[in-house]
Amino acid sequence: MTHAMRKLGVLFAAVSALAITASVTTASAESLRDNWCKDVHLRFFAGGAEGDAFASIVYNGALQAAKDTGAQVDYVFSGWKAETMVQQLREAIAAKPDGIAMMGHPGEASIMPLAEEASKAGIKMMYQNVPLPGVVAKFGGGYVGAQQGPQGKALGEEAVRRFELKLGDSVIVFGPFDQQPERYVREGATADALEAAGLKVTRIPSPTEWAADPNLAISAVTAALTNDPAVKAIIYPGGQLLGNATAYMQAAGKKPGEVINIGFDTSPQIVAGFKEGWVQLTADQQPFLQGYMPILSLCQQVVYGLAPIDVDTGAGFVTPDNYAAVADLATEGLR
């Protein structure tokens, strides 16, 4: 074979490879779908009330997922009330949607029989915010949210390290300690971590109503500080209360930074608290993902037959040093 013929052969092979690549690329492009979930009907639980500092970010994530996939979504707001969620879940199953994205707040015992009913009806399930490993193990589904125990423990340990809290220091942990155990795993883990470091921890129950109206907690916070003026830090159970730390501290006659205010989540109010010196640390659990990913996963399960998604949204800590990186997104209701 002459040199010219070899060159011609190489050129022919290269042209053939390009043609094959172009064919595959064209076929792949043709297989992509717009509004690929448009025939799927879902019901999504946002958890709190409309306009709630946390629930609104979850809701925005769900709205974005519905727009991106084309899914038909009915949104449910529950004011963080477990009994309301259970009744709404019954109603959701009776409506027979293709899938339901459910908050896990009512706990394993309450949701287990309804998850069984959904499974028998062929309704796909996803859970967000509070994990239900027993329900998922028995009747399937996925979970999108922070792992409550590890996140709570990490916050307590970070608080001790970052603020040099020492043996005998007094701290307050607010949490739903008067509710079912699944609801206070996170805050309980924070309190346990602080106690393990030798701190004096006072656990104070936080009613569900405080999430809807954080001002309802003003009297409890001020009373706790009056009863123990030596309190070094307060840990709040959610972004609604942490975002209202300014009001609590001003009502108690405290200056910015005089009491360390710690908690979970981000919001425009929490960003303002960081900026003004009222908030010192928060554990971010990315509620936008808790809205977006369950809808995406339900669509993938129904349309493509894919397995449920499990995502740990516990992203780390927001501090006075890095809050500016999420400030604009928080203002938009996305972080």
Explain what this protein looks like in three dimensions.
Keywords: Signal. One of its GO terms (molecular function) is carbohydrate binding. This is Monosaccharide ABC transporter substrate-binding protein, CUT2 family. This protein folds into two domains: 41-146 and 286-315, Response regulator (Rossmann fold, 3-Layer(aba) Sandwich), CATH 3.40.50; 148-284, Response regulator (Rossmann fold), CATH 3.40.50. The mean pLDDT is 92. The longest helix has 29 residues, at 3-31. The chain has helices spanning 3-31, 55-69, 82-95, 108-120, 133-139, 148-163, 185-196, 209-212, 218-227, 239-242, 245-251, 268-276, 287-304, 324-331; strands at 41-45, 72-76, 99-103, 124-128, 142-145, 170-175, 200-205, 231-235, 260-264, 281-284, 311-312, 316-318. α12 links the parallel β9 and β10. The chain is of the alpha/beta class and 335 residues long. A six-stranded parallel β-sheet has the order 2-1-3-4-5-11, sandwiched between helices. The protein has a six-stranded mixed β-sheet with strand order 7-6-8-9-10-12. The termini are far apart.
Strands of the biggest beta sheet: in what spatial order?
Answer: 2-1-3-4-5-11
> Tell me, what is the CATH class of the largest domain?
Alpha Beta
**Overall spatial form:** globular
Low-confidence stretches: none
Keywords: Signal
Pfam family, one: Peripla_BP_4
Subcellular location: Cell envelope
Organism: Neomesorhizobium albiziae
